[in-house]
Each structure stands twice: as structure tokens, then as C-alpha cells.
Write a structure and sequence with these properties.
By secondary structure, the chain is of the alpha/beta class. It has 16 helices and 13 strands. The C terminus is likely disordered.
């Protein structure tokens, strides 16, 4: 079986790593397309260096741009690669423009599409990620869901065929890589941090960075928290640009801003924080797996189980609400024992299903 895996952004490198490893342990062939959606070393190259992820066979080097331009260029180039490689299946991850372009290119060529992290919904159609994930799910032949909620979301949309509850591949990645992080990362020493004596913050989503008032409120809330405990703020390239454009004097707020950091460093910072504030879906889950309380800087989350479980609270972008949420979550005991997102074997299940359904050389329409 020949699988083309399409990645392009930081979360996808993390998700693809354990699946790629599982594929290498079989007789199957994997061809990796890197769209180049993320291209800074800290957001791209470092993941291939750290996570034992197979080198991409091709890098489309699409770079940044408007959603339409970026997705369109990816679609054209992926189409050419698929025509040459003729895979048995195309595997896409998550909810980025790379995800949508990969799925659309494959379905137009009648190549089966498998979607890892299918069925997630924030029910906020202002988020570009929501459109990407919904459209990709409706094009996919195999839908690998991380949670029971994701399966129910698909069922509500009439999608029941090809749906598999496998768990979350990011949990597989955490279990493997946290040991590497603890052995190899010295990030706490470099930043002169003590465990549980700082808060960790990340901000990158368009719903926050594209709106100066929202971004200002978030930054001011972090500054308020910083008066009580050190806030460590790795600044995403997108966020850095918007902060520069907004002329917000972040240096005057005495926040500890740092450049984006390698994945293993980030894992160690997450594990040792006493609270995490983020608009990232992946970081919300990583906080849960590390038993760290999380404040989500959004009005909705696709990871609703975390809110229901009490491990996460939604604070939006209001300065007072964020601060109050931080105070509420500080010191809260988080129990990650419930297997909300599987048992760490999602990657193996995905490869087993792909092997069973695709490598038998049957026609796709007889399988799904």
C-alpha cells in the first residue's frame, strides 16, 4: 500500500509523527508532502529534526498568503504530485488549509481520502478552521475520530460510513516524546524557571490576532496575571507581526516573550506550568494530559470534553474574564485518568484500518 501523507503546519507534524512511525513498521510505503504552510525553522524544520519524522519527499514551499491564494497554490501542486505518485490513499490531518487542499486534490482524482482528527466542531463558522474540517470530513472516505463526541458530530451531519473511533494521535506523540523532552531539554534552566511557578501563554488564531481590540485585551490580561506570577509567552510569527502592526508596547508590560520554541521544550514548559492560557486546540489537550489547568482564550472549543470535565474553561478575549478564569483555575486539581481521547494507540489503529480496507486492492467504492 502506498500512502501519501500531507502536512504543512506545526500541529500536523506532531500528529503525523506517530502514524508515520507505525507505517514504517509495516511493509507499506509512505510519501510525505510538506506544503510549506509553516516554513520558519521553529515552526517546521525543528519537528523533522526532533520527532523522528521521515523527511518530506517534496516541499511545495507555498508559504504565507491569503487563504484563497494559499489553498489554491497547494491544490495545484498537490494535484501534480498525486498524478505522478498514484497512491492508494491520501492521509490528511486536522483543519488547516493544507488539510483541505490535500483532500480536495485527492477526491478530484478519485483517490480515497483518510482524515485523522475527523468530526471536530467548534460550531463557529467565522473560524476558517471550521470550514476546513467540515468540508474535509464530507469529502473523506475514512474518518478517524479522536473522541465519542466527534463520532456524534459526524452522525448529526449524516456521516456514518467509514467512521472509526481510534483516539487522538497527539496522545501517542505525548507518551513517546515527553521522555525525550525530560532527558534532552534544558528549557527550564535556560529561562530560570521553577516548576509550577509560572504561567504559559500562546496566542495565534486569526479570531484573536486579526482583531486589534481582542488581541490588546488578551495581552493586557496576560500583563495583569504577570503581576502575580511570571507569564512565559512564546510569540507565534503571526502574532508577532500583528503586535508590531498594532504598535502595542508589549515590552512595557514586562511579559517574558520568547521566540517559538522546539516541540520538546514546549512539552516541558507545558508539563511544569501551573496554568496554561491558550487559543490552541492542541495545547488544550496537552495541558489535560499533563494535569495542568487550562484557560482557553476563545468563546468556543472543539474539545468540549475538556470543559465538561472541568480541566478547561472558556474565557474569550475579555481582560477581566481572562483574569477571573486564571484565578479560578489556579491550583485546581486536574485528573487526566479518564480516557477522553483513547489509550495512546491511535496510530496503530489507523494503520491497521488502512491496511485492512485499502491494501486489499479492492475498488474504493466497495470499501466505504
Amino acid at each position: 500500500m502506498k500512502v501519501v501523507s500531507i502536512v504543512g503546519a506545526r500541529p500536523q507534524f506532531i500528529k503525523a509523527s506517530p502514524v508515520s512511525k507505525a507505517l514504517r513498521q509495516t511493509e507499506h510505503q509512505e510519501f510525505i508532502i510538506h506544503t510549506g504552510q509553516h516554513y520558519d525553522y521553529e515552526m517546521s524544520r525543528v519537528f523533522f529534526d526532533e520527532l523522528e519524522l521521515t523527511e518530506p519527499h517534496v516541499n511545495l514551499e507555498v508559504g504565507s498568503g491569503s487563504h484563497g491564494k494559499q489553498t489554491g497554490e497547494m491544490l495545484m501542486q498537490i494535484d501534480n504530485v498525486l498524478l505522478t505518485e498514484k497512491p492508494d490513499c491520501v492521509l490528511v490531518y486536522g483543519d488547516t488549509n493544507s488539510t483541505l487542499a490535500g483532500a480536495l486534490a485527492a477526491v478530484k482524482l478519485h483517490i480515497p481520502v483518510a482524515h485523522a482528527e475527523a468530526g471536530l466542531r467548534s460550531f463557529n463558522r467565522e473560524m476558517p478552521e471550521e470550514h476546513n474540517r467540515v468540508l474535509t470530513d464530507h469529502m473523506s472516505d475514512l474518518l478517524f475520530c479522536p473522541s465519542k463526541t466527534a463520532v456524534k458530530n459526524l452522525e448529526h451531519e449524516g456521516i456514518t460510513r467509514g467512521v472509526h473511533l481510534v483516539g487522538d494521535v497527539m496522545y501517542d506523540s505525548i507518551l513517546h516524546n515527553i521522555n525525550l523532552a525530560e532527558r534532552n531539554s534544558d528549557v527550564l534552566d535556560r529561562l530560570k524557571l521553577q516548576p509550577r511557578c509560572y504561567a504559559l501563554a500562546t496566542v495565534h488564531r486569526a479570531e484573536n490576532t486579526d482583531h486589534p481590540d481582542r488581541l490588546r485585551n488578551i495581552i493586557e490580561a496576560l500583563a495583569l496575571i504577570n503581576q502575580e506570577t511570571q507569564v512565559i509567552f512564546p510569540v507565534h510569527p503571526r502574532t508577532k507581526q500583528y503586535l508590531r502592526d498594532s504598535e502595542l508596547k508589549i515590552q512595557n508590560l514586562k511579559l517574558k516573550t520568547i521566540d517559538p520554541i522546539p516541540y520538546l521544550d514546549m512539552l516541558l514548559l507545558e508539563k511544569n506550568a501551573h496554568v496554561i492560557l491558550t487559543d490552541s486546540g492542541g495545547v488544550q489537550k496537552e495541558a489535560y494530559w499533563f494535569n495542568v489547568p487550562c484557560v482557553t482564550l476563545r468563546e468556543q472549543t472543539e474539545w468540549v470534553e475538556l470543559v465538561e470535565h472541568g480541566a478547561n474553561t472558556l474565557a474569550g478575549s475579555n481582560r477581566k474574564t481572562i483574569y477571573q478564569a486564571y484565578r479560578t483555575m489556579t491550583g485546581k486539581k486536574i485528573d487526566s485518568n479518564p480516557e477522553l481521547y483513547g489509550n495512546g494507540k491511535a496510530s496503530q489503529k489507523i494503520v491497521e484500518i488502512l491496511t485492512l480496507l485499502i491494501s486489499k486492492k479492492k475498488r474504493p467504492e466497495s470499501l466505504f
